[in-house]
Specification:
By secondary structure, the protein is mainly alpha-helical. Helices cover 83% and strands 0% of the residues. It is globular and about 50 Å long. The model has no long low-confidence stretch (mean pLDDT 93).
Length: 88
């Protein structure tokens, strides 16, 4: 896997932050605003895909970014242990 350059890293960070901001709005939005916000999120994922980013990977990054530090560490620990056990 090749290293991500600064421009690509910045674009990825922008997509993730935009999605996170919209997800925060979804949590507090009135019902009539939720659907348009979700459509905006879908559009951001589509734009990221057009730029060559993997939608599933971005979704995982967003999911983990929204976790607390302790929960993220636990998930990472399980990931490492599970992969270690199946790769032996």
């Amino acid at each position: 896997m090749e290293k991500i350059n600064k421009n690509t890293q910045g674009a990825l960070r922008d997509y993730v932050e935009r999605i996170n901001n919209l997800l925060d709005q979804v949590v507090t939005a009135q019902d009539k605003y939720i659907r348009p916000l979700r459509e905006d999120i879908k559009d951001i994922y589509k734009a990221a895909q057009r730029e060559g980013f993997d939608k599933g990977a971005i979704k995982e990054v967003v999911r983990r970014k929204r976790m607390g530090d302790e929960q993220r560490e636990i998930v990472q620990l399980y990931d490492e242990k599970y992969f270690e056990s199946i790769l032996k």
